[in-house]
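Changelog note: in this version the structure field was regenerated for every chain. One regenerated record is shown below for reference.
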Amino acid sequence: MEWLSFDEVNWLAVALAFVVSFVLGWFWYSPAAFFPVWSRLGGLTEEKLKDANMGVAFGGTVVANLLGVLVLAMLMTPLGATGIGGGALLGAVLGLVYRAGAHALHNGFAARDPRITLIDGAHDVVALALAGAVLGIWM
């Protein structure tokens, strides 16, 4: 499996792409953007948020985001995704198929409001597209 290699990974680019995608998430789910609608649709109350273990929530987010950016970096060279455009396109495709697709599957069976899926799925597509663009500059 040639793609399963760290040989072509630019670790500085991975770190920067991770930060860029994480900052997007911070804004996306902020009160200035989608948090008010997203939390209302999901039934999140201030009481539920106070009781939530935010360490686990953010820890899981950090690990999943880092792994997503790393796998994107590992796939770019073997798939010939070069430059800003190639990286952004591959990131958007992976975000749409795997991350937004997972939201659609899980949220559909959990009978969640489809607008939650749209907000979360769009975030993942944009986040991985931005990460891919950043990686494309450096790889």
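Spot check on this record: Residues 106 and 112 are 9 Å apart (CA to CA). The chain has a mean pLDDT of 95.
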